[in-house]
Amino acid sequence: MIVDGQLLPSAAWMIELLMASLVKRWLQGKISVAERLTYLEHLADIGRQFGPAVMAAIEPADNTSMAIVAEALKPSLDQDSHGREFFAILERPEVMGDLLRLNPSLATAARLCTGRKAA
Q1: For residue 29, is it left (φ>0), alpha (ψ between -120 and 50) or beta?
Q2: What does the domain layout of the chain look like in residue ranges?
Q3: Tell me: the pLDDT tens digits for 34-57?
Q4: What is the sign, positive or negative, of the torsion defined by CA atoms of 84, 61, 6, 12?
Q5: Would you list the DSSP string of 26-85?
């Protein structure tokens, strides 16, 4: 996947990195113990895939990123699409580029995934 002239891991990997930043944000809120455990388990699953260095590099999503993801989710809520529209929107280079600019830690994590030195 190439965004803003930058070679990134596959779109699926970038979505996983984005999900980690969203989960880290949700963990900062007031949530039940059950929700916290679910989110921590999800982070652990992502961590097993990418490793501790990548996970440590990812910062929580900001308000604008959260809003972009919420808007991307809306078309999938109206249809029995299994999230296809949601992922298709987030995988657009211009959308992923915006998310990377808003949360540069995603680009750092992506470089770690591709074996490049993080800036």
Answers
A1: beta
A2: 2-113
A3: 999 999 999 999 999 999 999 999
A4: negative
A5: HHTS---HHHHHHHHHHHHHHHHHH-HHHHHHPPPP-HHHHHHHHHHHHHHHTTT-TTHH
